[in-house]
Here is the input.
Amino acid sequence: MKELDLVIIGGGPAGLAAAVSAYDAGVRSLLILDREQQAGGILEQCIHNGFGLHRFGEELTGPEYAARYIDEVKKREIPVQLETMVLDLQPLPDGSKLVTAVSSGGMLELKAKAVILAMGCRERSRGALNIPGTRPAGIYTAGAAQKFVNIKGYLPGRRVVILGSGDIGLIMARRMTLEGAKVEAVCELMPYSGGLNRNIVQCLEDFGIPLLLSHTIVEIHGKERVTGVTIAQVDENRRPIPETRQEIPCDTVLLSCGLIPENELTTAAGIPLDPVTSGAVVDQYRQTGCPGVFACGNVLHVHDLVDYVSEEAALAGESAAAWLRGESLSGESVSLIPKDGVRYLVPQQLRLPLKDDLRLYFRVGAIYDKATVEVRCGEKLIFSRKRPRLVPGEMESLVLKKSLLEGLDGPLTVGLSLEGESK
Amino acid sequence: MKRNLTCIVCPMGCQLEVELEDGKVTRVTGNTCKRGEAYGIAECTAPTRTLTTTVRVSGGTQPLVSVKTAAPIPKELLFDAMKVLRKLTVAAPVALGQVVMEDLCGTGIGVVAGKEVSAR
Ligand code: SF4
Here is the structure.
């Protein structure tokens, strides 16, 4: 069995950035595994631009952003094994991890001292959404349609209704329109869109595509091929209002209803997950509940900007290198608890004492105007910052100086206080 | 004439109201900062977009290569540009950053490849 210091599962933006930073921190025995024919992950099919504004200060397309990291990996001669799918991950009694994978060459077993989980996420499918109706051809997730159009060169349909206003759905509304399809409407169950503002403007408003908030598809019609959908408005409990039912003829339905981190391997390894993020519970080093296993990118929590994926992955790579050098990443553990409007926090745990300033990522559960983000330890206010507007579609981050967190004596909470509310 | 639009420069998404006279912007309201005003003026006088799409590749390991305009082009030209690019085929190998068309629809703006496609 081949033995390595570090195995990185996934060669998308997270895996590539983690590999580069682990290498730069001294790791030489490492390998990236990816199931696709090329590295780069989902970026390969995201041909629109807007990637890299934070990281590189310019607007790149997905493939361009990926190419920058693929180049860095090549320069360092970090091996990438493609068309290899990891099937199982098991911690061994000696503290190392057994990675079982399958490739065209057959089954592969690797023994790794450390593992970085960078498997990304997948789209919620029709099955997971429970839309009633027949099962005709013409129903795709937005990402599947994106692959058809941008990689294979096929247009999956000519008259389209999109369910869900996630960013991929919005991007595909524009893409299909430019390629000659007619996008009839985008239906969003919630009273607000989860997509970035810029995508709503440049992908829908630019082309006069209606965004129907508080609407859903209640039925899909057609036997062989989709012939139409019935949509309806929903009430505040998200139940369809029968009087508002309306039929829209179309031949294609695209689903853009959220992303789910792919954590089958994490679960198989017995690593605890956070029920809100559906990703592993991690500390500030991005170390999971299994020592020597780290997680970063969309497998940990769904990001909206790849720039932050790269940043987080670099941190996981450095941490794995430190762990391999025998540095202690343990210490007294303190929980971070989201409350009052904050849906989740990453990391979920702190190991004390902190070695560096702490960057926290979080998302809110609704739209909040003029809110103050408050970090507390018990009743004591440690940090607060006013934010003019917080929306569920944009991940927020804040940096807490190491000095602020000295002498913590209990869990930290992060919550919102709204203007006019007294605490 | 008045136009309402959403500022996209930052996540605030301020609702701008732009007043126009003879195609000239006379007033922008609803913006919280200067950047919003600049965006409102640009959007109402000369809106531009970077076009990203794919073009066919002959003899390559992949059927398509992703491309983008080297600079933003006038928004009203998007569909004309798509028409022209739909007819274009480039021969593999294609290099990242290679100019696949010099002048798109008389804009003087080129179209460059966004990835590498090797020859079959
Ligand atoms: S006007 Fe200023 S604050 Fe408002 S969205 Fe635009 S850039 Fe942001």
Remarks:
- The beta strands of chain B are 2-6, 15-21, 24-29, 48-49, 52-58, 64-69, 73-74, 89-91, 99-101, 111-113.
